[in-house]
């Protein structure tokens, strides 16, 4: 009987230790909240061959849960009479995201949309990285297309809650986005033109960045 009680007590102790070891990890998980009122975004700087001055715009959603970037001159081309520099286009945008005191944010998901016409053998690459001013730039997220392709494309990147990168509370830091479109002729017929674009004249093609919010 005593032996049985001792075993039960030992088991209870082990469970208590296990619970204690798990508790800190659970406590470290952020408690996400809805986006606060008063959030605004403005473009600080724009650089790159894919977004000449005046061809990129940013807008925040009404519910403060996302913002969109729209381009009107962002297209990479290869083949035919195009120039070698046309095969790679890039855009770097630094944005000032003004957040009410007591809140901070991370990017939880990004949706990229565009259109590509790739002849047989052509390879298309779309890359992006984003980071806060003063932080080390993260590695690029890369998506690939292969010809023959003639259609819209959409790529989505989702970040697990445990891996979200939060802006430091109480600090005003620009949010930086670097994107790139690149084409490789591969085994294609070099006389035929292929292109990959993320531009839109009517605003229908956008890149959408979804916020995650928490209280400081």
Overview of this protein structure:
- Keywords: Signal.
- Residues 1-27 form the signal peptide.
- It holds the Pfam family DUF4360.
- The protein is mainly β.
- It has a single domain (37-215), classed as Sandwich (Jelly Rolls).
- The protein has 1 helix and 13 strands.
- It has one helix at 2-28; strands at residues 32-33, 40-47, 56-60, 66-71, 75-78, 88-98, 103-118, 123-132, 141-146, 149-158, 175-184, 194-197, 207-215.
- The strands form 2 sheets. Strands 1, 3, 4, 5, 7, 10, 12 and 13 form an 8-stranded antiparallel β-sheet that branches. Strands 2-6-11-8-9 form a 5-stranded antiparallel β-sheet, with no helix packed on it.
- A hairpin with a 5-residue loop joins β3 and β4.
- The longest helix is centred in the first third of the chain and has 27 residues, at 2-28.
Entry summary:
With 216 residues, this protein is mainly beta. It is built from one helix and 13 strands.
Q: Total strand count, please?
A: 13
How many helix segments? 1
- Given helix and strand content, the structural type is mainly beta
| Form type | elongated
Largest sheet: 8 strands, antiparallel
Q: Report the span from N to C terminus.
A: 53 Å
Number of domains: 1
* Average pLDDT: 84
CATH fold type: Jelly Rolls
**Parts with pLDDT < 50 across at least 5 consecutive residues:** 1-27
Helix/strand order, N-terminal first: HEEEEEEEEEEEEE
Assign the CATH class: Mainly Beta
Share of β-strand residues: over 45%
Radius of gyration: 23 Å
- The assigned CATH architecture is Sandwich
- In helices, the fraction of residues equals 10-25%
């Amino acid at each position: 009987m005593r032996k049985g009680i001792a075993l039960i007590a030992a088991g209870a102790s082990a469970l208590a230790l296990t619970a204690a070891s798990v508790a800190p990890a659970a406590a470290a998980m952020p408690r996400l909240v809805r986006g606060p009122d008063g959030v605004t975004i403005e473009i600080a700087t724009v650089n790159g061959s894919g977004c000449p001055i005046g061809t990129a715009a940013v807008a925040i959603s009404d519910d403060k849960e996302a913002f969109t970037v729209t381009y009107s001159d962002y297209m990479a081309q290869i083949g035919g009479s195009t120039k070698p520099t046309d095969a790679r286009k890039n855009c770097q945008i630094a944005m000032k995201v003004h957040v009410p005191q007591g809140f901070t944010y991370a990017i939880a998901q990004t949706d990229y949309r565009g259109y590509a016409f790739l002849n047989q053998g052509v390879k298309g690459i779309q890359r992006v990285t984003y980071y806060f001013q003063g932080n080390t730039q993260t590695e690029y997220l890369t998506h690939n297309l292969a010809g023959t392709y003639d259609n819209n494309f959409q790529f989505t990147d989702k970040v697990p809650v445990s891996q979200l990168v939060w802006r430091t509370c109480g600090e005003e830091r620009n949010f930086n986005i670097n994107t790139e479109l690149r084409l490789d002729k591969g085994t294609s017929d070099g006389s035929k033109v292929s292109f990959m674009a993320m531009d839109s004249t009517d605003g229908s093609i956008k890149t959408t960045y979804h916020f995650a919010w928490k209280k400081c």
